[in-house]
Amino acid sequence: MGIVIVDVCSVNPIMTLDIETIIESEYPEVAVIVNSCLSFCGLCANSPYAQVNGKLVHGKTAEQCLDNIRKQIEKELEMYA
Question: Is the pTM of this model over 0.85?
Answer without folding.
Answer: yes
